[in-house]
Design brief:
The structure holds two protein chains of two kinds. By secondary structure, chain A is α/β, with parallel strands linked by helices. Chain A is built from ten helices and ten strands. Chain A folds into two domains: 144 residues, Rossmann fold, CATH 3.40.50.300; 85 residues, P-loop containing nucleotide triphosphate hydrolases (Rossmann fold), CATH 3.40.50. In chain A, helix 3 packs across helix 5 and helix 3 packs parallel to helix 6. Chain B has one domain. Chain B is mainly α. The longest helix of chain B is centred in the middle third of the chain and has 27 residues. The chains are: A alpha/beta, B mainly alpha. At the A-B interface, helix 2, helix 3 and helix 4 of A face helix 5, helix 6, helix 7 and helix 8 of B.
Chain lengths: 254, 292
């Protein structure tokens, strides 16, 4: 099977601190992968290496066989990555609809010169409306993002990433800060996207939702990959349980 | 001609040049969100270029083209240097560029050093003709600004002005957009500088000092950062007030400084922000209005 994303032997080091130590994992086209681990496991660092914010010390990150390391963030986006960030960052000087429409016009904005000669935004706005509908916030299309609750902004992040038509959608804690019902709805939407063929990496703390929608899990702890497989097998793995529950619960000690 | 006195013609001409100069900074600071405290340097580069070219016997058109090209080219170089710095560091870097320009011009004998350049050829169009040329270029500049604001480039500038890291995440090549803003804004400042040189026909380094840079920034901020019509209004009024009323000229810095401070404190959106608030208050009650 052809791999969409292939991370091999990745190592990220900040001074003397090894944040990610020799981690490899891959994602097949059409897959939805849950990338999990306890706090401080290096999940966000891993994703930052994929997006290009952090430069790995060694290793490789390939998208459709093409090396991403050495490319800037916007170049990686143009090669097919779409990110929804953990901390919501809407453009606050434009409406919700415009936030998504700008991303939907990626082929207009590839070069400043061609962007200068293009004016029509109707098609992109139509597409943006569809996406807002899809994530369930079309009622806020004309709103100023500064006045919206977190649940809306999280979905705006997802809609804006989808507007780029990414080959691979990376969602960094999209459910964090949402209440139970909101998280459930958004997780359903993510699952629907995947069923429609979207390849997704979901980095998430909400294990219940991750277990429910992901077909495969990769678990990272302390910069090491400790498990990789289907959700049931992974969660019954002793190492994973230890990582999540702290010290080994030894029967004899009780 | 046109029922205007010579004095009125010269006021309108100065006003037009100020509007072009202010709109040039508005492209960089207003549209793309990149502060510049050294914009007068590019005004000066344009003025010196056109002065030297026309003094060497070139026609006015060549002087103006030379001014645009040279100011824009140096603007791109400065833009490259500025790509790695943001916000307050960019302010300091551009301020440094302004002082560097002054330092070079004062020491460079070829361009007259401290004495400046005198005997700059006039436009050859007569005062009314030159005013019409300036006003024509004002119209072109305004139309270009309005077009840019509506284009996808303006749309992208909005994103970069608000949050450049997130702009990268939606695939924008932030560096190239910033360079484009610097290139266009400094080239246009060069054009304004050339017009200034042929209008007053004498230039020296002091005409393009830090005070000029702050003056043009004040016009942009007071008019409303990014608002084309706000900036036109502020540039037109603030440029003629000191010429019109001698008393104000003596207190020019005090007036500009005071207005700049008052705007930042009470209406960061400038006059355009005030106008927008008034019109939206009239139309409908703003939801959640009144919050900071």
């Amino acid at each position: 099977m052809s791999k969409l994303l292939e991370v091999s032997n990745l190592r990220v080091q900040f001074g003397g601190v090894v944040a990610i130590d020799d981690v490899s994992f891959s994602l097949a086209a059409g897959e939805i992968l849950g990338f999990i681990g306890p706090n401080g496991a290096g999940k966000t660092t891993m994703m930052r290496a994929v997006t290009g914010v952090v430069t790995p010390t060694t290793g490789s990150i390939r998208l459709k066989g093409e090396e991403l390391i050495g490319h800037t963030i916007h170049q990686r986006v143009r090669r097919g990555l779409g990110f929804s960030q953990q901390l919501v960052k809407p453009f606050r000087n434009m409406t919700v609809l415009e936030n998504v429409a700008l991303a939907a016009g990626a082929h207009h904005t590839a070069s400043p010169v061609s962007a200068l000669f293009r004016i029509r935004r109707e098609d992109q706005k139509d597409r943006a409306k569809d996406l807002l509908e899809q994530v369930g916030i079309s009622d806020a299309a004309e709103a100023d993002p500064s006045n919206l609750p977190l649940g809306y902004l999280k979905r705006l992040e997802v809609a804006r990433a989808l507007a780029l038509d990414p080959e691979l959608l990376i969602l960094d804690e999209p459910l964090a800060g949402l209440n139970h019902a909101e998280a459930h709805t958004l997780a359903d939407m993510v699952l629907d996207l995947n069923k429609a063929g979207q390849s997704i990496i979901l980095i998430e703390h909400n294990l219940g939702e991750v277990m429910r929608i992901c077909s495969r899990l990769v678990v990272q702890d302390n910069g090491h990959k400790i498990a990789d497989g289907d959700p049931e097998t992974v969660m019954s793995d002793a190492k994973v349980r230890t990582a999540y529950l702290g010290e080994v619960v030894d029967d004899a000690a009780a | 001609m046109l029922g205007l006195s010579g004095y009125e013609i010269s006021l309108i001409t100065s006003m037009g040049i100020a509007v072009i100069f202010a709109l040039s900074l508005n492209l960089i600071t207003g549209f793309c969100g990149q502060i510049s405290l050294g914009h007068a340097a590019f005004y000066g580069i344009g003025a010196y270029s056109s002065a030297m070219l026309t003094k060497a016997g070139m026609p006015l058109a060549m002087g103006m083209i030379g001014a645009v090209v040279l100011a824009g080219a140096i603007g791109i170089v400065v833009g490259f240097a500025s790509l790695r710095v943001r916000h307050d560091f960019l302010a300091i870097t551009t301020m440094g560029v302004g002082f560097l320009f002054l330092g070079v011009m004062r020491q460079w004998d070829f361009v007259g050093g401290e004495m400046g350049v005198s005997g700059i050829p006039g436009s050859g169009l007569g005062k009314p003709g030159f005013m019409i040329l300036v006003l024509g270029l004002v119209v072109v500049t305004v139309l270009f600004s309005l077009h840019l604001k509506r284009s996808w480039m303006g749309f992208s500038f909005d994103a970069i002005a608000d949050d450049e890291d997130t702009a990268r995440v939606i695939g924008l090549d932030v560096s190239r957009y910033k360079l484009a803003a610097f290139a266009m804004g400094t080239a246009l400042a060069g054009l304004a500088g050339a017009l200034y040189a042929h209008n007053v026909r004498f230039i020296d380094p002091e005409s393009f000092g830090f005070v000029e840079s702050i003056t043009v920034l004040a016009m942009v901020v007071i008019g409303g950062i990014g608002s084309v019509f706000g900036v036109i209004f502020a540039a037109a009024v603030l440029s003629v007030l000191p010429l019109w009323i001698q008393f104000i000229d003596e207190y020019k810095l005090l007036l500009y400084g005071g207005l700049l401070f008052a705007m930042m404190r009470f209406s960061p959106g400038g006059l355009a922000g005030i106008a927008q608030k008034l019109s939206s208050r009239k139309a409908v009650k703003v939801p959640g209005g009144g919050s900071a």
